[in-house]
Amino acid sequence: MSDSERIARQRSDEHGRSDTSPGARTPGEEKPPVNDSSGRADGGGTGKRQADDGRAPAHDKHGHGAVDLNGDAAEVAVDLDELVKTAAERDEYLALAQRTQADFENYRKRVARESAAAQARGCILLAKELLPALDNLDRALEAAAKDDPLLDGVRIVRSELSAALARTGIESFSPAGEVFDPSVHEAVATSEQPADGAASGTVVEVYQPGYRLGETIIRPARVVVAA
């Protein structure tokens, strides 16, 4: 064998040994992943670490980004404070409205009572002015002759005045035969021997009828009482 053939054969043997080395790859073969120092492949390191943490990043309901839980809690606390404040103001205004309504109702009742009392006082004053006229008409009727042509006219006038007083609530009373009551009767005389044998303290004659408006005595009845 010549020297040139021997050199060519050595080169061919060396080339064959380098192709079969542990790190050699055949054409088209992919490079295996290189593990990091913890024994994990580079391609799955980030996902693996996130899975090992056991926590997922917080996202909003649309998945657009992280949610600031502390900020939301603060906003909820502020809203609750506003609701409490609004409820307190509502209760205060409601109590004020109720007090105002009660005050107005009391005022309305007081005005109604005062108005009724003023009306009653006016009626009493008017009756006191008219009662002497009625007394005079009664005397005229007692003294007039039965055939007097003016008698019917006097009766009509007297009846109209009495009806006008009745329409305002004023009524007359004649306590003949009743027990004398100094709160509604005025004794002008006493009878030692009453004709009908009435008991002592009984009204035997009415000199002038009394007048009253409800429970208010405008004028007591003037009477004669049995002794």
Write up what this structure looks like:
52% of the residues lie in helices and 14% in strands. It has a domain at 169-227: Head domain of nucleotide exchange factor GrpE (Nucleotide Exchange Factor Grpe, Chain A, domain 2). It contains four helices and six strands. α3 (69-143) runs antiparallel to α4 (151-167). It is of the alpha+beta class and 227 residues long. The protein has helices at 3-19, 45-53, 69-143, 151-167; strands at 170-173, 185-191, 203-208, 210-213, 216-219, 221-226.
CATH homologous superfamily placement of the domain at 169-227: Head domain of nucleotide exchange factor GrpE
The global form is rod-shaped
Structural class: alpha+beta
Whole-number radius of gyration?
A: 62 Å
Q: What is the topology, as strand order, of the major beta sheet?
A: 1-4-5
Number of helices, counting only DSSP H or I runs of 4 residues or more: 4
**Name of the CATH architecture of the domain at 169-227:** Roll
Spell out the helices and strands N to C: HHHHEEEEEE
Mean pLDDT, to the nearest integer, reads: 77
What is the CATH C level class of the domain at 169-227, in words? Mainly Beta
Largest sheet: 3 strands, antiparallel
Q: What's the helical proportion of residues?
A: 40-55%
How far is it from the N-terminal to the C-terminal residue, by CA? Answer: 190 Å
The CATH topology of the domain at 169-227 is given as: Nucleotide Exchange Factor Grpe, Chain A, domain 2
Report the sheet-strand fraction: 5-15%
> How many strand elements?
6
The low-confidence runs, each spanning 5 or more residues with pLDDT under 50, are 18-30, 32-59
